User: Fold these one by one.
Assistant:
Number 1:
Amino acid sequence: MNRFERQEILKGFGIEGQKKLREARILVVGAGGLGCPALLYLAAAGIGTLGIADGDFVSLSNLNRQILFGIEDLGKPKASTAAGLLNLKYPDIHINIHETYLQVHNAIPILSNYDLIIDGTDNFQTRYLLNDGCFLLKKPYIMAAIFQNEGQVAVLNLAYGNDRPLHYRDIYPDPPMPHEIPNCNESGVIGVLPGILGMLQAAEAIKLLTGYGTPLKNKLLHYHLLDTNFFEIEITANPKADQTTPLNLDAYYKMDYVMTCGGVETINWKDAMDVLQKEKHALLIDVREKDELPTTELLNCHQIPLRQLENEIIKLQAADSFILFCQTGTRSGHAASLLKAMFPNKHIYSIIGGLRDFNSPLNLKLYG
């Protein structure tokens, strides 16, 4: 008996299907609410090589949905922590750790090493970056998206005959306006919802790799948590997608997904402190209201509330870099978008997780 026996006895799957899983290489981008359940089920199914790409660290607010992690993992890097936990459970699988955020300069070399890509991220910048990269590399792309109590899953970039593969830009040729659609940090989420969608992503990956069943070809599956309603939307070729998609790698490397997707450059506390130490003209700015706690006298930062930032920042415009933070990272993201529009040639960062992040200097002073 082996641990895959219940899969191998399925008619149409069999030993041959298991062999295909063992030979497969899957990259999961984002070890969060979507990525954690997908990783667990892919590892349990016997995928031979899993890649985990995530530059973030575990924080307390992650734990209602990121089920690979617990209290003991707070402050640890997600990618290597997830890999360690999976290898303890399933030592027969190989895991590649990519402890980084995927960006234009590093995405293609990483994506190239895998058979298909599962997108477990929660921002449009990465979604369009992955979609375009997978399109150019001819890699299947399995995406999921969540807003409050509903979510969507699609299997994209599948080649059929001579037709151009349909991809995410056939659904949404252009990204939404900045902050038009909030992420889970801003809008909230019941932890089980990304769990359901992440498992659907894993199921679609297994079907695609083994030929077992029919993948979500040219369809967007929509799920609503509150009334348990599933429905499918047909995806058709959108002529505008041909105008907005980079058609070769040169065009891809010239794309600015941060600007075109209304995104901002994010940074963790450790890297932010490194920038402040190395760059003479980098400034740390607290965009919370002045009466908010905890106080930040120990951080040697400027305090400019978000509502005053546009007027007050002029006094500090000689700086080369602005590093912004707030309580959770939401307001600093808005502030970074505002400053990027004002100073497009400066380095502007929003600190992930804000002061509530386990690795913030104030938390480290309390608990370190």
Note: The mean pLDDT is 89.
Number 2:
Amino acid sequence: MAESEPTFTRIEWPKSLPGGRLDQALREHLPSVSRGTVRRLIQEGHLRVNGAPVKPTYSPRAGDQVEISWPAPRPAVAQPQAIPLEILFEDEHLIVLNKSAGIAVHPSAGHDEHTLVNALLHYCEGKLSGIGGVARPGIVHRLDLETSGCLIVAKDDLTHIHLARQFAERTVRKYYLALVCGDVVKDAGEIRAAIARHVSHRKRMAVAIGEGREARTGYEVVERFRSATLVRVQLFTGRTHQIRVHFQHLGYPLVGDEVYGKRQHQRFTEATGIEVNRQMLHALEISFTHPATQRSMKFSAPWPADLGNVLARLRENRNRLS
């Protein structure tokens, strides 16, 4: 069998992208590619600047010509598993699906089976983009374990590259529904607060004044309840745990979030009598440009049953007390 032609990505380094180490700075342009993958590409000679090999510590300058030759995908470590998928759209280039809450996107410590990647390997018979590495075939962006909703999957490398660029350039529109603890004061607003890893709890993120990565979240109130507020959220950036951290910062952590709002969630349960076993966050809508057809695409994921049931209970409580 003849080898497939290599896939290339060529970038003229813009002034708008940061300097610093190349392996770190390139994450701003290709956010779905891990820093470790970038470092491996450099070490194996697949990444060149102005035609010459460089070290991971090279500091890119405006006008530099960066070329990446993507190696053929390595065999996926994850094993195919017949797990049901809710497909919202599919063609030969990509899939848009409605991820269920409680399923991890890709294998990790403690989640090496029954992940979305396991399901996709079975469904697509292994025909997925390899840019995300052996543990993340096809994965362009992620949702938290407990978050449900819209997720895009790339079937080939070119599609992955173009989608990743749209995420990096912030042209992908992402809207979420979040049920937060308390009565949000403003009907609409925008949260601008940089996010960094928590100084003592390394698996958590936190607002970092004067440092961290830029993070911007817009919101508008959809419905108010006793002890909770339903908000529609727009993500302008895509930092880890961004919605959860930003609403904790405002004083309204997500209902069901045991990491960023355990005490407030306990008060919600005591006040309403409603037990919730996951964070109430749903990726409602996503819009992007199809990499092959250049058509504008927009998809919405139906609300999950558990969120719908909680909202129905809250409405009953509100009506009974009014």
Note: The mean pLDDT is 89.
Number 3:
Amino acid sequence: MSGGRAGGGEDPAVLLAVAERCCREAARRLRAGAGGATRAHTKPGRRFDQVTAADTAIEDYLATALTAAVPGSAVLGEERGGRAGTGGITWYVDPVDGTGNFVRGLPLVCVSVGAAVHGRVVAGCVVDVFRDECFTGGEGLPLRVGPAAVPGPPGGAAAAGVPLVLTDVPLPGRVDRASVGFLAELLERAEVRRLYCTALSLAWVAAGRADAACNLGIHPWDTAAGAALVRAAGGRWTPVGGDPAGPPEHAPGFVAAGPGPEAKALGDWLTERLTALARPG
């Protein structure tokens, strides 16, 4: 497959099949190595941001496998940064989303791959490593959990009677009065869970297990695949902060909301509050 060829090489369905195959293999490798000693190191100047040998090894595998499947494609990953390509396709790769959970043996870890064509994210795959649950979707493609398409917006506030929001705000090491105030106000409106696994949070919103998710201090590899899933499910993914003219997945914050009027209203409120929180000063 040629990464620079129009048509089949840029077809979201073809790119999604590649992403899913590589994500599943990466998750298998992570599970196989999870029983051994896992030593984490903090990244320079980022006390709460951890990395392990598994992060770099899985990213190296994904970059090699994805570019072999789509020659000329570029890769932007969390650990190795960018790998330039010659065509219009870019892979956004988070090899181990939830490294802190992985190190502690908490089963909230996923592999995430998003595919962009000329800057527009068109497909995404998230694999929950320890549940071996695969979420896929994209432009013109339905949300699927495993092999089955999700039949409309399941679960959510309509089933539970109260909305559920997934967020890691306030972030460790970045706690101030405004962020604590945001969380306190949110807790008056919704139940809140902190997963520390952004891509999985987005996959769960897409699947209807939560009504909304939001975060700050994120990167495109955190959100590209999950944003594609939310849109495939009929939900809304909104960038917060950053350059309005740039790719939305490059924004440092986001709000994702499922389909339906209640989720939309919650998403509107979250966007307003998070935008104010992200504003400098």
Note: Residues 220 and 250 are 5 Å apart (CA to CA).
